[in-house]
Request: fold
Amino acid sequence: MTTTHTLADPRVEAALDRMFAHAAHDDATAARLRAEHGGAMPTAPQEHADAAAQIYMPISAAGGRLLYNLVRAIRPTTVIEFGTSFGISTLYLAAAVRDNGAGRVITTELNKHKIAAARRTFAETGLDEVITVLEGDARETLSGIDGSVDFILLDGWKDLCLPVLRLLEPRLTPGTLVVADDVNMTSLEPYLSYVRTPANGYHSVTFPVEDGMEISCRLS
Reply:
């Protein structure tokens, strides 16, 4: 028996290959941009997002496949992604939602250039029907989400991961999975401390893929 899945769709494969190839130059691009900004990037979210408009900042391919499997397994109705960038991780999430046969991906991004590029990619891959892109500060755009949230990927600015999670917590049900990327970054430490404290209602495990993913299950 031949089993097909959306990640094997030539359109999706081509888009991921193209974006990962561009992302391979992120370090050089970031170094050039830091030099242009006097050695440091702006700290305000919108200014930082605009300064980093050429940087892909992707999850790894292995991390993407992990996300795909997690979404296939728990079959969420609503997937929230904080931090679209150019849409690499969004494609993995949307492919899983499409293959589940139901659900939606709501993703958030600040930079207009990245939003336009991501939307083109979503249309080219045929996954735009299951993806909604919210433009603006996630702390504002996600405040109007209706219904429960069943799966969250936090991969935007690390210092905002905890505020975004706290914003969405009233919509989480027991069993909701929350995944945060790049556990090695010091700016994610307040978030990690929160989800690793049992009294806050999560059971959390670090998965050793690339820079590490924290997978937290909402317990109550």
Observations:
- The beta strands are 78-82, 104-109, 131-135, 149-154, 172-181, 202-207, 213-218.
